[in-house]
Amino acid sequence: MKMSGDVRLTWLEVLVGCLLIGLIVVEFLVYSPPIQGLENSLTVSGSVRQSDQSTTVRLAISGASNQDLRVVAFPLSNKTVDEPSVFVYADPSFPVAGVAPLVAQGVPDHVDGELLAHHYAGSFTRVTASGMADVFRDTGRAGNRVVVVMTGVFPATAFSPKVDLVSPWVQAGGTVVWGGGTIGFWSGVGGQALSAKDAVGEAGTVRLLGEGIVQYPTTFGRVGTSQSGFGAALDVSYRFASAGVLRDPVLARGGIALGWYSGPFSSVTYLPRGQGGYVIFGGEILDEASTSVDLTRILLSGAIYAAGPVAYKELRLSKAKPSSVLDWQLPFAVPKTGVMLVAFDPNPDSIYFSRSIIGQ
């Protein structure tokens, strides 16, 4: 007996429905407490033993599972913040530069998802242009806050030839994360496309970052070909260096190269200014997902509080016992402020990430 077209269609609908339900169940299980608990049962701790000739970290690993692990260590400066509150700017009524509008609007969702998956302790808030201006006006709480602007354009309510809420806030301890068009060049107005009148120009960049940090003109498509120490340690994938952020002047002012190099240019850079600073993704933002992974690793690791070189070690836990101890020699001495010890699975889909301060 042949089935009618209506019956075949019904069975097809049932099959598709079952597949969709199965996908939802799998996703729920992956992010459910029992499955996350299996990954979070892994613990990595360390203790420091220092002599006149060397510094050794004794790593203790328990709850090992079938996954890769990267262990990162770097000396700390005297300024550390646990996990600051994060404010991500996205306002569809304002223009963007060096980033597609849909990408700019997708950044908050991806950053939120990464921070949530990694159990980030700080708060997360999405802000429009007016909300971001309010954050910048509150300089009293700047020291424990990060504002993410992945649009390549500051709204004129926060930064323009006549307005600068950004510099005092950063000087007071705030951190701005930037991506897209060169920072300080554009100042946008709500409901209007960018035009020549909206260009603050090189003077805007200098006002925020200081002289000699950025070399104009912007060269779109310029990518890094070699990794910095922190870029390799944190497995940072962002390579664009189009905005011309110069590595050596940044390092001379106490900054940190966090990404890749294209000649003298850096793709991801931390530049301290006053009590705060800027984390600059130095070019176009084409993929909000991978950029959010990079940003999350930088925030979780506390890399912007480093005061010296970074070292890292790869471990394959499937070859380790459920509990194991190993010694790791570091290429630097331990300051009084201690060493940040970071451990994470470099797989972008992994949620395991831990950090602790040792050797204080």
Explain what this protein looks like in three dimensions:
- There is one protein chain.
- This protein has 360 residues and is α/β, with parallel strands linked by helices.
- It folds into two domains: 44-76 and 308-358, Interleukin-17 receptor A/B, fibronectin-III-like domain 2 (Immunoglobulin-like); 85-304, 3-Layer(aba) Sandwich (Rossmann fold), CATH 3.40.50.
- 28% of the residues lie in helices and 26% in strands.
- The protein has helices at residues 5-30, 33-40, 101-117, 129-137, 166-171, 202-209, 229-233, 247-252, 288-301; strands at residues 43-50, 55-62, 68-75, 85-89, 124-127, 145-149, 154-155, 175-179, 187-188, 226-227, 256-257, 260-262, 265-266, 268-273, 276-281, 311-316, 323-330, 339-344, 353-358.
- The strands form five sheets. Strands 5-4-6-8-15-14-11 form a seven-stranded mixed sheet.
- The longest helix has 26 residues, at 5-30.
- It starts with a helix and ends with a strand.
- The model is unreliable at 1-39 (pLDDT under 50).
Task: Give the tags.
alpha/beta, 4-stranded antiparallel beta sheet, 360 residues, globular, 19 strands, Immunoglobulin-like, 26% strand, single chain, 7-stranded mixed beta sheet, 9 helices, Rossmann fold
> What Rg is obtained from the alpha carbons, in whole angstroms?
23 Å
Measure the end-to-end span.
80 Å
The outline comes out as globular
Largest sheet: 7 strands, mixed
Averaged pLDDT: 87
Structural class: alpha/beta
Summarize the helix and strand pattern as letters. Answer: HHEEEEHEHEEHEEHEHHEEEEEHEEEE
β-sheet strand percentage: 25-35%
Low-confidence stretches: 1-39
Spatial sequence of strands, sheet with the most strands: 5-4-6-8-15-14-11
Number of H- or I-type helical stretches? 9
